[in-house]
TrEMBL record:
Residues 10-159 form the Pseudouridine synthase RsuA/RluA-like domain. It is an enzyme of class 5 (isomerase). This is tRNA pseudouridine synthase C. GO terms for molecular function: RNA binding; tRNA pseudouridine(65) synthase activity. It holds the Pfam family PseudoU_synth_2. Keywords: Isomerase, tRNA processing. It catalyses: uridine(65) in tRNA = pseudouridine(65) in tRNA. PANTHER family: MITOCHONDRIAL RNA PSEUDOURIDINE SYNTHASE, TRNA PSEUDOURIDINE SYNTHASE C. Transmembrane segments: none annotated. The lineage of its organism: Bacteria, Pseudomonadati, Bacteroidota, Cytophagia, Cytophagales.
Amino acid sequence: MLEIVYQDDHFVAINKPNGLLVHRSPIASNTDTYAVQLLRDQIDQYVHPVHRLDRKTSGVLLFALDKDVLRNVQEQFANHQTKKTYWAILRGYSAQEGTIYYALTNEKGKSQEAITNYKTLETTEIDVPFGKHATSRYSLIEATPVTGRMHQLRKHFAHILHPIIGDRPHGCNKQNKLFLEKWQMGTMLLHAAKLELVHPISKKKLILEAKLSTEFSRMMKALEFEYQLPRPKDLPYKELP
């Protein structure tokens, strides 16, 4: 059963678990389970994914229940009128804040502008030897991508030499091996925490939030992070005037 974080006559949003594909893809033919199919069966209604999340990324995933609403919100995405907030754990100490400007090549070979803003929420150093170092260092960050390119955050943080823990193939294989052997952790630590948009019918701002996965929370504790990430409100969504 998928966790629904928002639902009305026009939308439904879920907290997508790590490892679940949004829809059928030729690059992932090893599964016949998809969020579109599961949600359709769960609410007994056809759904249209408004945007994408990587298979390995957890968090807020929005679906439209009719094509007019779908077109409206996709225009908001295209015109940068939505805001997406992600949390991730990176290798090493990232800068206190920054903007990554690094063009990415899409599946058709076309270079596209890609921009990511981020800030470091906390850094940690734990007594776990890694390579020639006596300790291991990690950063908990909040990222707000301006553009929405495929694997953008994964590629951008790898580009600045602070790859997301658990990412393959863009991450650090040696770190991924360490996490698998020491903590039995093979999940990518990237979570789509919040999505903000304007409801096309009510014209009010929606803030959709998804709680962290158990695995992400477990690794925050294992890595000795003390920062308290905001939790979704008691209501399944927040609507602003």
